């Protein structure tokens, strides 16, 4: 059966909502960043620092491919849509759900975060990245769900009704 992929910007709640959705649906939850960390034996920030973003995107693409027919719920990384091949996999092999969040909500949620390499840029760069990705999320999404000011349970229940 087709797997479900959750996409959206950093801090949109993909892992929290994915976990909630999986438990409500009795399906297995996969956090793609965790799988990459396990496979590589190093943290995401270390992979970025040692190999660069392009390498990370290739590993991310392989991992995404790996889970497409497993009937699982996958929380992807926020930048997966930057890779054309990953976008094709999302469009062709997954039911893809975009967790649409406002930039101001992300800023508030991630203000103290220092684990995400691409969050450590200037605010202008983070916001430009956010804007650039909106169209790519839209291109890949079968379903879009607004996540601002709503609980994970509420959001997961809305997703459950539409899948
Ligand atoms: C990234 C988002 C991160 C992680 C990596 C790159 C991005 O995942 O994959 O740091 O490019 O937006 P989250 O969206 O779970 O933070």
Tell me about this structure.
- Belongs to the shikimate kinase family.
- This protein has 163 residues and is of the alpha/beta class.
- The chain has one domain: Rossmann fold (3-Layer(aba) Sandwich), CATH 3.40.50.300.
- 55% of the residues lie in helices and 13% in strands.
- The chain contains 8 helices and 5 strands.
- The chain has helices spanning 14-25, 32-40, 44-51, 53-66, 84-93, 103-109, 123-140, 152-162; strands at 3-7, 29-31, 73-75, 94-100, 143-146.
- The mean pLDDT is 96.
- It binds shikimate-3-phosphate (S3P).
**CATH-assigned fold name:** Rossmann fold
Overall helicity: 40-55%
Distance between the termini: 13 Å
Q: Regions with pLDDT < 50 over 5+ consecutive residues?
A: none
Query: Oligomeric state of the chains?
Result: single chain
Kindly report the spatial arrangement of strands forming the biggest sheet: 2-3-1-4-5
For the record, what is the CATH homologous superfamily label? P-loop containing nucleotide triphosphate hydrolases
Total strands: the figure is 5
Based on Cα principal axes, name the global outline. globular
The top level CATH class name: Alpha Beta
Biggest sheet layout? 5 strands, parallel
One letter per element, helices H and strands E, the order comes to: EHEHHHEHEHHEH
Give the radius of gyration: 15 Å
Strand content: 5-15%
